[in-house]
Each structure stands twice: as structure tokens, then as C-alpha cells.
Amino acid sequence: MSGGKAVNHSKDSCETFSYDEEKVSRIQEKIDQVSGVEMIFKALADATRLKIAYALTLEKELCVCDVANIIGATTATASHHLRLLRNMGLARYRKEGKMVFYSLEDDHVRQLVSIAMIHEKEGIRHGR
């Protein structure tokens, strides 16, 4: 452990600057592995895109027109958000004649959205 002087007297922070060198070193070697992952959360941080992703957890595949109606937007707006989700690797599309259908890229995206929904519901139940 490395020690130091008192830094912060807040109740939610350490009162003394002291850390576990081995633990810090071990984690620092791996911390850059998160690089790029923030883009997933950035994509889902937009309320419209999160609604679209959630809709795609409820239905395996939706056409752009379905999505537009679900979120109460124009097809142009829905297309824009779906394209962003696709470009960020969270959704895929297929074209069938004049129709374009979107689905989530894989089950990991479905799990992220589902876990976030569960977490939010639990937070409300616990009096947040």
C-alpha cells in the first residue's frame, strides 16, 4: 500500500490517499481494453435509439415503417436512427423488394438492453 496525506473530507471519498499497488498495476495493464466500447453506450444513450433497440428486443425484426410508427416519428427519422445503430454495429438490415427490415446485430445487444431495463425497474422498486 502506498500512503499519503488527507485529501478529501467528503463522506463518499477516501479521507487518506492510499492504494493497493499490485491491484492498481494489474488492472492498469488491462484498462485500455475498454477502448471503443463507449460507442455502444453512446449509441444507446439517445432515447430514440434506445426505444428502437428495445422494440427490436420485443420483435426479432421490424421494417422501417413499423419502427417509425412505434416511436412516433417519420420514416426518415427512423431510418436515420436505424442507420446509426447499424453503423455502430448494433443492428443489421436486409432488403426485401422495396421494404427494409432491421434486427439487432446479435444477442449481446439484446442482453445489454434487457439488463438495462431490468436494472431500471429494480431501481424504481427500491425507492429511487
UniProtKB/TrEMBL annotation:
Residues 27-124 form the HTH arsR-type domain. This is ArsR/SmtB family transcription factor. It comes from Bhargavaea changchunensis. The lineage of its organism: Bacteria, Bacillati, Bacillota, Bacilli, Bacillales. It comes from the Bacteria. The keyword RNA-binding does not apply. Pfam families: HTH_5 (PF01022). Signal peptide: none annotated. Keywords: Cadmium resistance, DNA-binding, Transcription, Transcription regulation. InterPro entries: ArsR-like_HTH, ArsR_HTH, HTH_ArsR_DNA-bd_dom, Metal_resp_trans_reg, WH-like_DNA-bd_sf, WH_DNA-bd_sf. PANTHER family: ARSENICAL RESISTANCE OPERON REPRESSOR ARSR-RELATED, HTH-TYPE TRANSCRIPTIONAL REPRESSOR CZRA. NCBIfam families: HTH_metalloreg.
